[in-house]
Specification:
- This protein has 9 helices and 10 strands.
- The chain is of the alpha/beta class.
- It has a 6-stranded parallel beta sheet with strand order 7-4-3-8-9-10, sandwiched between helices.
- Helix 4 runs parallel beside helix 9.
- The relative contact order is 0.21.
- Bound molecules: tricarbonodiimidic diamide.
- The site of tricarbonodiimidic diamide has 8 residues, from helix 7.
């Protein structure tokens, strides 16, 4: 049965049975003090603000029986899935695959690549390992969502203007209704966060909708 969610630019009716929550890249290396993100000079406390809303949203999604999908950005240890154009970015000591404070930077299996404990996936919840910023590129996410007959995505995570935005744009072009849960997203740059959310809802919702965790939780209750 469709339920109505308060959102911008307009309320959205959606069917929870055909809705997935996608939590983007809530990884230790991006969020925790002492991780890769902080080593680049970022203020990781800005990302911490998204954790309580994301945790509440995750609990409500599980309770309502939504498909819950977690993603992680990272690469194979041999870097075979990291294109040179991505590997070359940044100062040589903080490049992908180099030793970082929580293991090799953005490498699968390293401690920093893990999802933060507050948002740990449950057994059986799919975890999509992605080599790009978007969660559809070179992953099984499209097949997974098709198998679940999903039509609406609730999207949150970090960072708003990078992996959340890229995934939302990919999903929008694939025909999904995308709701970005704004307070459960964050950026190292507050202006980019605000602009990222504003870009979703501009022009009548050019990429989708923006809501917040308490509105989603109320709609699912
Ligand atoms: N997950 C994600 O957004 N990856 C990034 O590299 N984000 C930055 O903002 N750097």
């Amino acid at each position: 049965m469709p339920i109505v969610l308060e959102a911008e630019p307009a309320p959205l009716a959606f069917d929870p049975a055909r809705t997935a929550l996608i939590i983007i890249d809530m990884q230790r290396d991006f969020l925790e003090p002492g991780g890769f993100g902080e080593s680049l000079g970022n203020d990781v406390s800005l990302l911490a603000a998204a954790v309580p809303p994301a945790r509440a949203l995750l609990a409500a999604a599980r309770e309502a029986g939504l498909l819950v999908v977690h993603t992680r950005e990272g690469h194979e240890p041999d870097l075979s899935d990291a294109p040179p154009a991505k590997r070359e970015r940044g100062a040589p000591t903080v490049r992908i695959g180099e030793p970082g404070p929580m293991g090799r930077i953005l490498i699968r299996g390293e401690p920093g690549h893990d999802i933060i404990p507050a948002l740990s996936p449950l057994d059986g919840e799919p975890v999509i390992d992605k080599p790009g910023k978007g969660a559809f590129y070179a992953t099984g996410l499209g097949d997974l969502l098709r198998a679940g007959a999903v039509e609406t995505l609730l999207i949150c995570g970090v960072t708003t203007e990078v992996c959340v935005h890229t995934t939302t744009r990919e999903a929008n072009d694939r025909g999904y209704r995308c709701v970005v849960v704004g307070d459960a997203c964050a950026s190292y740059n507050p202006a980019f966060h605000a602009a990222g959310l504003a870009m979703i809802t501009a022009q009548g919702g050019i990429f989708g909708w923006v809501s917040n965790a308490s509105a989603v939780i109320a709609a699912l209750a």
